[in-house]
Amino acid sequence: MSSNINLIDSFQEFKEFKNIDRPTVITVLEEVFRSMIRKRFGTDENVDVIVNPDNGDLEIWRTRVVMEDGFSEDDDLEIELSDVHQYDPDLEVGDEYIEQITLESFGRRAILAARQTLVSKILELEKDEVFKKYKDREGELVIGEVYQIWKKEILVLDEDGNELILPKTEQIPADYFKKGDSIRAVVLKVDMMNSNPKIIISRTAPEFLQRLFELEVPEIFDGLITIKKIVREPGERAKVAVESYDDRIDPVGACVGMKGSRIHGIVRELRNENIDVINYTSNNTLYITRALSPARISSIKIDDDNKTAAVYLKPDQVSLAIGRGGHNIKLAGKLTGYEIDVYRENDEVEEDVDIEEFADEIDSWIIDELKRVGLDTAKSVLALTEAELVRRTDLEEDTIQEILRILESEFE
Fold first, then answer.
1. pLDDT in the model for residue 72
2. In 42-91, where does DSSP find H-type helix?
3. Which of 200, 185, 89 has its CA nearest to residue 135?
4. Maximum pairwise Cα distance, the chain
5. What does the pLDDT read at residue 286?
6. Among the four 88, 187, 331, 354, which has the fewest Cβ within 10 Å?
7. Entry pTM
8. Are residues 289 and 297 in contact, defined by beta-carbon separation less than 8 angstroms?
9. How far is Cα 412 from Cα 408, in angstroms, rounded to an integer?
10. How many Å apart are CA 371 and CA 392, to the nearest integer?
11. Cα dist. 134→145, 189, 364 in Å?
């Protein structure tokens, strides 16, 4: 009906871009019109509102009982005989008079108000739908497009145009995005803030690494391999404990892939984060040994009551066990649940770092020169004076000073 065009078409246009199911649409439409009817007639008890589910067309039918002249007490529910005969002369007292109500009869102001109510309700419903959708997807992988970049967060839009927030704290330190870039992350948490859904996504959460493994390793997705635990220092290092219930499947080999083919894509996504995949075991001694990979352990003393472990290694393995910045031993502790202390085999506490671990701060040719004269760890370099280093190597004095500054900062 032509009188419905402005109201219904505006809704249909709005509906095309919103993910609201058909029954909900009809309920919203009906409630808006019933509200109009109540304002005009005082009641909607005797009114039928029919919404066409296919195109949104509307019909409103009002039923009143025919009464003897002078006996009508409520014009909204009853109509006198003389009045009804103007429309249908065949009706008698006690019959029901059914008439169609057009939107035009409500007046332009009422129609505009109804349209405003309609848009408001749809927006409210849309926010609720987005909240429910993403609340159910916490921990799941999402893909979006970078829309706006601020100092403390990035605004990402999903395929439906919903806004996702990636805070700086949930970005990998080496992350760099431009507007229009595609971005992958997991849904970290969803809250309602001032009636608006706030969806926080993360690239540093362990769940992000887990979802990437599920994408790259079919055996994990199919449930043949289980990820028991993931710990991360985002952008630096991660340790993933995996287990297979099928003896024919090597869980570590399956995760890494032929020549690292499966794990390579994950490492690239995580900005070259080192990923250690280890076989899970309930044997704590063996589990800690594997967790400290790539270091080779000589012996371990475990105190299960206090959840501590004393690990003894050969001098050349100490720096590997600790790792650059202490990341390796810290992650091994988080993975196993034990506080791990590293000792040299002669029981002296040793804290040293392989000189190769400084490759991102010290040029490779300088590292090669230090190794040429037998200085392959940070402590072995720091044990010599500046003058001795200048005399033993072919390095300039200012280069030696810079090397010492870098190495000393590691142990501060």
1. 80
2. 81-84
3. 200
4. 123
5. 94
6. 88
7. 0.65
8. yes
9. 7
10. 11
11. 17, 8, 47
pLDDT of amino acid 288: 95
Give the CB-side neighbour count of residue 139, counting CA atoms within 13 A: 4
Kindly give the parts of the chain with pLDDT less than 70. Answer: 1-22, 53-56, 346-351, 412
Q: What type of residue is 270? A: L
Separation CA 55–CA 226 (nearest Å): 49
Q: How wide is the angle at C-alpha 83 spanned by C-alphas 35 and 95, nearest 5°?
A: 75
- φ, ψ of residue 271 to 5 degrees: the values are 60, 50
- Partners of 232 in the beta sheet? 238
Tell which residue, 246, 219, 243, has the closest CA to residue 230: 243
Q: What is the pLDDT of residue 8?
A: 52
| Nearest alpha carbon to residue 27 among 44, 45, 51, 43 | 51
- In this predicted structure, what is the pLDDT of residue 2? 40
50: β partners: 59
Rounded to whole angstroms, how far apart are CA atoms 94 and 255?
81
- Whole-number pLDDT of residue 9: 53
- What residue has token string 């991360």? 232
Q: 69-78 long-range CB contacts below 8 Å, 24 or more apart?
A: 76/41, 76/42, 76/43, 76/46, 77/43, 77/45, 77/46
If DSSP codes are grouped into helix, strand and coil, which group holds residue 383? coil
Query: In the prediction, which pLDDT does 77 show?
Result: 86
In the numeric block, the tokens 């859904």 are attached to: 197
SS3 165: strand
CB 166 within 8 A of CB 156: yes
Task: For 276, list phi and psi in degrees, rounded to 5.
Answer: -100, 120
Question: Which tokens is 98 given?
Answer: 């059914």
